[in-house]
Task: structure prediction
Amino acid sequence: MFAVLAPIFVLHLMAAVSPGPAVLMAARIGLTRGLRSGTALALGIGTGAVAWAAAALFGLATLFEMAPAALTFLKIAGALYLFWLAIGMWRGADAPLASSTEADRAPMSLKRAFLLGLTTQLANPKPAVLFAAIFIGAVPQDSGWPLYSAILAIVFANETVWNIFVARLFAFERARTTYLNLKSVIDRVLGGLLAALGVKIAAS
Result:
C-alpha cells in the first residue's frame, strides 16, 4: 500500500501548494479574520478536495471525457463564482477595517468560513481531472475501500494542513500591519488575481 500512497502524497502535495483560488483565499482570510477563521476555511478546502478526489476515483473524469459540455458548464459556473468573490474584494478595497488590534478583530463564523473554503474549492472542477491523471497510473483497478480511504485521507490532510499554514503565515501581526497600511492595494491585487484565476479556469 505504501508504494501506492507515497507517489500520490508527493504529487498531490505539489498540486496543493501551487497558487490557486484556495490558497489565495486562505491568505486573505488569515490576513483579515485570523487563524481561527483560517482553520475553518482550510477544513472546508480540504473537504472540497476530498469531494473532487472521490469523484475522480469513481469516474467523474470519465464522464467529463464523454460529455465535455458538463465540464465546460462546471468551469464557467466556477469562474462566475470566483468573479463574484473578486468583485466583492475590489469593491471593499477602500473600506477600512473596524479595528487594527488583534483583540478586536472579529473572526468570521466557523460555519461561514468552512462554507467559503468548500465553495471556493468546488468552484474549480479541474482538480477532478488532475486527480484522475494521478490515480490512473498509481491506483490499481482492483483496489478496495481501505486504499481509497487512505487516498482521501491524504488529500484532506495535504489541503487542510497547507492552507492552515498559509492562514497562519498571513495572520501574524507583522503581515496584518502591512495589510492595514496597504489594504486598498492588496485587496485589489488579490481580487484581480482571483478574477484572473477564474478566467484561466473557464478558458482551459
Observations:
- The mean pLDDT is 81.
